[in-house]
Amino acid sequence: MAARPRFTSRATVLVLVLCSLVAILAYPTRQFISQRAEISAQRAKADHARQQVEQLRRDKARWQDPEYVKAQARARLHYAVPGETPYIAVDPAGRDAARASAPASPSGGTAAGPVKAAKPWYAGIWDSVDAADTAAAAPAAPAAPRPTPPPSAGDTSPHDH
After folding, report:
1. How far is CA 140 from CA 45, 90, 132, in A?
2. What values do phi and psi take at 65, rounded to 5?
3. Secondary structure class of 110 (helix, strand, coil)
4. Rounded to whole angstroms, how far apart are CA atoms 95 and 121?
5. Which of 95, 94, 74, 98 is nearest to 86 (CA)?
6. Can you tell me the distance from the alpha carbon of 95 to that of 117, in angstroms, rounded to the nearest whole number?
7. What pLDDT does 108 receive?
8. Running along the chain, 161 residues long, what does each successive block of 10 average in pLDDT?
9. Rounded to an integer, what distance in angstroms lies between the CA atom of residue 28 and that of residue 37?
């Protein structure tokens, strides 16, 4: 008797149909999973935004309280209530300690240069604008005039005429 073939034509067609179904459904399935992940990320983002809104509402409610406003003005702006004497503590090891610890130079300052007090950021910008203006306004030494060569006969450039 003849041996039966291991794969019949029906089995081969069935395998081809199953493989084509897997290939056809692979892309939509991947898109579905990707969209589900994106939806999850957007929901998490929305929850985070809701939490921020709630925090801002709580902050706004706190700022409606006059006592909170007074406390913030005192802490941030160093305001004082009429009748109080405000004091600001200065670090005693600040400027004088830096001068004492650095060796003095013959010019009178410290070896590292003079110690500058802390200035606000806008003062530094304005100082740099002033320095740039002073440098631009300073007269530069006039350069010696260079003799111009006489135009050659073959030169026909339009800017020389």
Report:
1. 60, 45, 14
2. -80, 120
3. strand
4. 20
5. 74
6. 8
7. 46
8. 74 92 93 96 98 97 94 88 85 64 49 62 87 72 56 54 48
9. 14
